[in-house]
Specification:
- The protein is an alpha+beta fold and about 230 residues long.
- The chain folds into two domains: about 170 residues; about 35 residues, no CATH class.
- The protein is about 45% helix and about 15% strand.
- It contains seven helices and four strands, in the order αααββββαααα.
- Strand 2 and strand 3 form a beta hairpin.
- Helix 1 crosses helix 2 and helix 4 runs antiparallel to helix 5.
Length: about 230
């Protein structure tokens, strides 16, 4: 029988739990996120490190949910954090995939100046218009894409492989992540307490595990970093 995994402890306890090391997580990501693609090299290292930090935090949240007796509200809010950070990691990986495969959006035009006219009246209405001037760049630059735009590109180009169920899960997770806006409610039951439960936690876990262990990472010997997502 394998030893029982240590639990979260007080700072003065004799033994402590630690998540998987930053070094190990970053090494796993390095099997996908590499230099030599169309992804800007100056942005690669910060992206990899931010993904690593968030993945270590996600493992910490998993231990909190498992080990600590929480009120139902605190449990829901911890699951919400798990969902948000999981979606952010997937969005970051999607951003790299889309750009590194040459499927990113780009433009040769950069905003240079905006002009606003003074308000003027037509009949009983008051109007104002704005003119924006663009300058043409010497070469195209990559433009930012929303999670929705990235997800559609990744799915249409099958950048994770032939995994239709995974694409569908991530689509649901993306919509759930959008509930980070506290005032964006539809009715009296559209609250964090009702929106985040074990079902949403399992959705986030399976989506993140699917991405981190998909065919893009088959040469990595470090997939055990994410066994907790598949328990």
């Amino acid at each position: 029988m394998p030893p029982t995994s240590p639990k979260l402890t007080l700072s003065n306890a004799p033994t402590r739990w630690y998540p998987y090391s930053v070094t190990g997580i970053e090494a796993h990501l390095g099997f996908l996120l590499v230099n030599g693609t169309t992804f800007p090299e100056d942005k690669l290292s910060p992206l990899k490190k931010n993904l690593t930090y968030n993945l270590q935090y996600i493992e910490f949240l998993d231990r909190v949910i498992k080990d600590i007796s929480l009120t139902s509200v605190l449990q829901a809010l911890n699951i919400k954090s798990f969902v948000i950070h999981s979606a952010a990691v997937i969005e970051g990986i999607y951003n790299y995939l889309v750009i590194s495969t040459g499927n990113g959006n780009s433009t040769q035009w950069q905003s240079s100046k905006k002009f606003q006219c003074s308000p003027y009246a037509i009949d009983t209405n008051t109007f104002m218009h704005e003119t924006e001037v663009f300058i043409k760049l010497a070469s195209p630059v990559i433009t930012e894409m929303t999670f929705d735009q990235l997800a559609k590109k990744v799915e249409s180009k099958k950048l994770l492989g032939e995994v239709p169920d995974l694409y569908a899960k991530i689509s649901r997770l993306r919509k759930l992540r959008n509930k980070i806006h506290l005032s964006g409610v539809n009715d009296s039951t559209d609250t964090d307490y009702y929106n985040y439960s074990t079902a949403q936690l399992n959705l986030a876990k399976s989506s993140l595990y699917g991405v981190l262990t998909c065919s893009l990472f088959t040469t990595s010997p470090l997939m055990r970093c994410f066994d907790y997502l598949n328990e």
